[in-house]
Amino acid sequence: MTASARYTETAISLHWLVAFLIFAAFPLGLIMSGLALSPLKLELVSYHKWLGVTVFLVAVARLAWRATHTPPPLPTAMPAWERTAAHGLHHLLYVLLFAIPLSGWLMSSAKGFQTVYFGVLPLPDLIGKDKALGDVLREVHRLLNDGMLGLVVAHVGAALKHHFIDRDDILARMLPFPSRSSRM
Amino acid sequence: MTRLFAALALLVAVSPHAAELSAVQLDKSSIAFVSRQMNVPVEGVFKKFSAQISIDPAKPEAGRARIEIDLNNIDAGSTEANDELKSKNWFNTREFPRASFVSSAVKALGGGRFEAFGKTTLKGKTLESRAPFTLKQEKGVLILDGTFPLKRLAYGIGSGAWSDTSVVADEVLVKFHFVLK
Ligand code: HEM
Ligand code: HEM
After folding, report:
1. Looking at residue B111, what is its pLDDT?
2. Residue B99 φ then ψ, to 5°
3. What is the pLDDT, as a whole number, of residue B12?
4. pLDDT tens across B120-141, in order?
5. Which residues of chain A register pLDDT less than 50?
6. Residue A72's domain spans which residues?
7. Number of compact structural domains in chain A
8. Proximal ligand: closest to the CA of A41
9. CA–CA separation, B84 vs A37, rounded Å?
10. How far does the centroid of ligand 1 lie from the alpha carbon of residue B131, in Å?
11. Hey, are the CB atoms on B77 and A42 less than 8 Å from each other?
């Protein structure tokens, strides 16, 4: 396999940056939701929002990359259903990378607790304070997160299956260092 | 309108206190507060209060006010926050169910702006405070609007872990809006 079949460095950096941010924001979301109201909770909720807004910004960069690049083609040996599944899953993940932060932002406005990025940059409240709507958006935020959890498990499972069972280049071409390609 | 003026003029002629307005329209008045949590301004309201205010727009310096807030009817946005605010660390409403502001001196600052001097009592502690406000006459009513900062820690509000001002700022803005007839 040639070097051109790898994702570009930009794509790889953005992919892992988003993955890293989500692996921080997700458990933080679960932990803080379980806490009783306390200064710690207020702090964690703010950190969670800042992380989430950062995910949104990096997702914009990813989408810009994706709009201007074609990902490396999948191995020809890959069955059609797997290609379809991979594309579908990637599209859904992209959608969630926007939908989850958006739902969190709207929820915050509806709950009357504006999002102030890093404590300095207030994001506009697109909707006014509305308790009932806030509760709905909270449910939406949770459901989207549950959905993403399932998709990421499938995504990681697929990556590992390609690496250890199919023994192809799929994981290696998204890793910072092309381990399998260099071995082959 | 002319008739109203005529009536007012007559009243003024009859008694020196006649133009003084003192019927506070509670349903049109409000007392709100804005705290800063992690530098996010969060607004809440005191849903139940009583207010006796008398002020003569022609002689505001003689104005007097007595505001009492029923702290059990605080609305900070969520049941969780309301319960927390009623607890011992915050207002401790079981022991101190009311907050009050009593003023007997008003100073004109010019340009339709005034300042009420008085005593604020919160959580059993009484401190001197000043509340700047504006006066506006409109269709037979008088509107008092004002905002003033209150240092919560001076009254022991939000003690324990909550005294960390990097999470909840010491300064809380109190915003009042009274309509008098
Ligand atoms: C991709 C980024 C994000 C992820 C992965 C994420 C994940 C989560 C998770 C897992 C929860 C816990 C839900 C539960 O209780 O089961 C949560 C709660 C929450 N998230 Fe996010 N979130 C993200 C972005 C955001 C953003 C951008 C905001 C706001 C600007 C936000 C605001 C909130 C709030 C306020 C809660 C607490 C809801 C409550 O318990 O009342 N989130 N998030
Ligand atoms: C929250 C975490 C993650 C998200 C949101 C995510 C999202 C995505 C998306 C949207 C793509 C498609 C890129 C494109 O073609 O435009 C992708 C590709 C990929 N991801 Fe993830 N990913 C995450 C975590 C992971 C993890 C933990 C692994 C490794 C175990 C992984 C391995 C891969 C691989 C190997 C590809 C390339 C697939 C291909 O070549 O077609 N991802 N990821």
Report:
1. 85
2. -120, 150
3. 44
4. 999 999 999 999 999 998 888 9
5. 1-4, 182-184
6. 3-183
7. 1
8. 1
9. 8
10. 39
11. no
Inter-chain CB proximity A111 and B40 less than 8 Å: no
Give yes or no for a contact between B148 and B131, defined as CB atoms under 8 angstroms apart. Answer: yes
Structure tokens at A125: 């409240």
Encoded tokens for A163: 């690496």
pLDDT at A21: 98
Residue where the block lists tokens 């939701």: A33
List residues of chain B with CB under 8 Å from any CB of chain A. Answer: 37-43, 77-78, 80-81, 84, 161-162, 164, 167-168
Query: CA-CA distances (angstroms) from residue B2 to A121, B6, B18?
Result: 52, 6, 17
**For the range B41-46, what are the long-range contacts, defined as Cβ-Cβ under 8 Å and sequence gap of 24 or more?**
B41/A114, B42/A112, B42/A113, B42/A114, B42/B76, B42/B77, B43/A112, B43/A129, B43/B77, B44/B74, B44/B75, B44/B76, B44/B77, B44/B81, B45/B74, B45/B75, B46/B70, B46/B71, B46/B73, B46/B74, B46/B75
Place of tokens 């001097």: B117
- Other C-beta atoms closer than 10 Å to the C-beta of A36 total 8
Q: How far is CA A157 from the centre of its chain?
A: 16
Give B100→chain A minimum CA distance, Å. Answer: 27
Question: Residue A68: which CATH number?
Answer: 1.20.950
Superfamily of domain B21-180: Lipid/polyisoprenoid-binding, YceI-like (2.40.128.110)
Q: How far apart are alpha carbons A37 and B83 in whole angstroms?
A: 10
Q: Is B162 helix (H, G, I), strand (E, B) or coil?
A: helix
> Over the stretch B47-65, which tens digit does the pLDDT of each residue have?
999 999 998 888 888 899 9
Q: Which helix (H) or strand (E) holds A127?
A: none
10 Å Cβ neighbour count for A107? 23
Residue B181's pLDDT band (boundaries 50, 70, 90)? confident
